[in-house]
Amino acid sequence: MNPMMKKQLILLIIIGLSVTCTGQAYWIYLEAEEYFYGSEARTQSYDKAFYLYNKAASLGNIASLRKMGICYYHGYGIPASKHKSFVYIKKAADQGDTAAMVMLISYYLNGEGCKKSMKKCFRYAYKAANQGNEQAILFLQQFSCYTRTEIIWKDDSVCTKRVRSVNEMKK
After folding, report:
1. Residues 116, 121, 123, CA angle at the centre, nearest 5°?
2. Beta strands of 45-157 (E only): which ranges?
3. In whole angstroms, what is the distance from residue 31 CA to residue 16 CA?
4. DSSP one-letter code for 5
5. DSSP 121-145
6. Sign of the CA dihedral 106, 112, 114, 117?
7. With contact defined as beta carbons under 8 Å apart, do 73 and 82 qualify?
8. Is the pTM of this model over 0.90?
9. What is the pLDDT of residues 125-144, one digit of tens each?
């Protein structure tokens, strides 16, 4: 076998393993959901759900990170911890999970498990809104005249002339 064919074969094996892990993570996540909510096939068990979310997250399932954060927040199958909840929700948000981004709005707004930060609150709201998340759009509209290109902050429910550029919000 020539070196080029070896490289291609190795690449195909790596891609195949990656797809298999991702697919496996998704099925583990679905099984965790059955335990979390309970189903005809599975009796509700937060302990089993948390274990499976953790396993799926270790295989790359982002939604599992968010669900682990929810488990930590409420103490489902694990002792409650606002800080650990924040850590997992942030991991999911930083990997592109818009539902986790919306959850971070509340965390940063109220200082749950983290230091209060309006700047970070609006940063995640803006990221989620630009991905089409309706909750984030509504949140931004409460505080500003939001468009995809700029945010004009409201003052006593009247839009002011103070404009922040999109690039500034992405920082």
Report:
1. 140
2. 144-146, 150-155
3. 23
4. H
5. HHHHHHHHHHTT-HHHHHHHHHHEE
6. positive
7. yes
8. no
9. 989 988 989 898 888 877 66
- In angstroms, the CA 112 to CA 50 distance is 21
- pLDDT at position 15 is 45
Strands 158-165 and 150-155: antiparallel
Within 13 Å of residue 57, how many CA atoms lie on the same side as its CB? 20
Q: Which residues contact 108 (CB under 8 A, 6 or more apart)?
A: 114, 116, 117, 118, 120, 121, 124
Going from the C-alpha of 62 to that of each of 28, 30, 55, the distances in angstroms are 12, 13, 11
Q: Averaged over 111-115, what is the pLDDT?
A: 95
Residue reference for tokens 């094996």: 13
Which one has a higher pLDDT value, 104 or 118?
Answer: 104
